[in-house]
Amino acid sequence: LNVNLQSITGEAPPQFNALVSIGASLAGFFALFTGSGAATAILEERRNGTLQRMFASPTQRMTILLGLLIGTFVLVLIQLVFLFSALTLINSLFEGEFTIIWGTNWIAMIALILATALSVSGVGILIASIAKTAEQSNIYGSIVAMFMGLLGGAFFNVDALPEVFAPITRLSVIRWSTEGFTHLSQGNSDVLLNVVWLLVIGAILFTLGMVIFNRRQDV
Questions:
Q1: At what angle do helices 134-152 and 18-48 cross, to 10 degrees?
Q2: Would you say 35 and 126 are in contact if contact means Cβ atoms under 8 Å apart?
């Protein structure tokens, strides 16, 4: 029995590309490690004594912390851009021609990448603000990355889970990011909710991490 799908508009329906969902989820998964590692550099600065010397300068404490945190965001952003570009090239090699698998809405694509970078960086910064040592931060970062990877679809299709687990998967920034990029690849530009939630999560974690780290007496 053959089933022939036809669009009522006369256009071919978008085809599902496994590289999109798998690639987007793995990109977010690896970015979590990068975000945690970059934020852990703050603890390394403290252990080496350079952070205390910077705090002793006339520069405001919050300005120094903000600079370090922005550096984490930029590093994660560069990694995401590189990974998504690499996935595009890999797909183009398979197809035999250059094809952008993330859709044609560049504004939505850029907004989603920026929101993902902010959200992932916020996770790393919060972990670094809670941990007391760089080693402890790496352990916490690995645990959180594995947890969000499982909930976000980095290892299996979370849509196959029972409906009762759906709200839990929304706790993962990878889930919001992967869902957004999957929609874009299928021609659906309605990713505003994904972008907003990623920005909200990132802003909250960013702010909370800065406040906790700024109030620590051991820094």
A1: 170
A2: no
